[in-house]
Amino acid sequence: MSVSLSRWICEEDMQLFAARLKEAREVRKMTQARLAELLSVDRRVYNRWERGISVPQLDAVVRMAQVLQTSVDSLVGLAPVTPPQIHNPHLQALAAQMDSLSDEDQQALIVLMDSLLKRSKMTQLLIL
Fold first, then answer.
1. Which residues, other chains included, contact 98 with Cβ-Cβ below 8 Å and sequence gap of 6+?
2. Rounded to an integer, what distance in angstroms lies between the CA atom of residue 22 and that of residue 42?
3. Residue 75's closest CA among 113, 21, 38?
4. What integer pLDDT is reported at residue 5 of this predicted model?
5. Dihedrals φ, ψ of 2, to 5°?
6. The domain spanning residue 31 has which CATH number?
7. Cβ(32)–Cβ(46) under 8 Å?
8. 14 and 68 share a domain?
9. Is 38 among the domain residues?
10. Is 97 in a helix, a strand, or coil?
11. Are 10 and 47 in a shared domain?
12. Judgement on whether residues 51 and 111 belong to the same structural domain of the protein
């Protein structure tokens, strides 16, 4: 059973939700199209949510909070929008699992990540 937020919030609250949704997306450096894809909704539907033209179902708001790595409270204005440590949701999910790796595997991952970051910095220097 889906519950519509429009039954619970007034037009002013809808605009606040839309603004908070946009802020949370931008803090995570995501496009509307990418967030819509991650939410499995049409980008036009997502665009209406972010403009405050329509209100998503409650289950969609919960999915948004999960994908944006924030809380429903922050999306509806009850808590501040906080930037995630890692902007890419897939990397965030992988990072959450890293502690379960053995010490040896964690060390190998550190070496790999360090070499990728150094390579990226070298590439940037060569471009300049």
1. 106, 109
2. 16
3. 21
4. 53
5. -95, 140
6. 1.10.260.40
7. yes
8. yes
9. yes
10. helix
11. yes
12. no
Mark whether 70 and 94 lie in a shared domain: no
pLDDT in the model for residue 2: 47
Q: Extract the tokens encoding 103.
A: 């010490």
C-alpha angle 48-79-98 in degrees, rounded to nearest 5: 90
Whole-angstrom distance, CA of residue 68 vs CA of residue 62: 10
Task: Flag whether the pTM goes above 0.85.
Answer: no
Domain presence at residue 30: yes
Q: What is the mean pLDDT of each run of 10 residues along the chain (128 residues)?
A: 51 83 90 94 95 90 91 85 73 82 89 90 83
Residue 51 within a domain: yes
- Of 90, 68, 93, the C-alpha closest to 17 is 68
Q: What is the DSSP string of 15-82?
A: HHHHHHHHHHHHHTT--HHHHHHHHTS-HHHHHHHHHTSS--BHHHHHHHHHHTTS-HHHHTTSS---
Q: Is residue 81 part of a domain?
A: no
Q: Which domain holds residue 95?
A: 89-127
Q: Report how far residue 81's alpha carbon sits from residue 25's, in angstroms, rounded to the nearest whole number.
A: 10
The verdict on 56 and 107 lying in the same domain is no
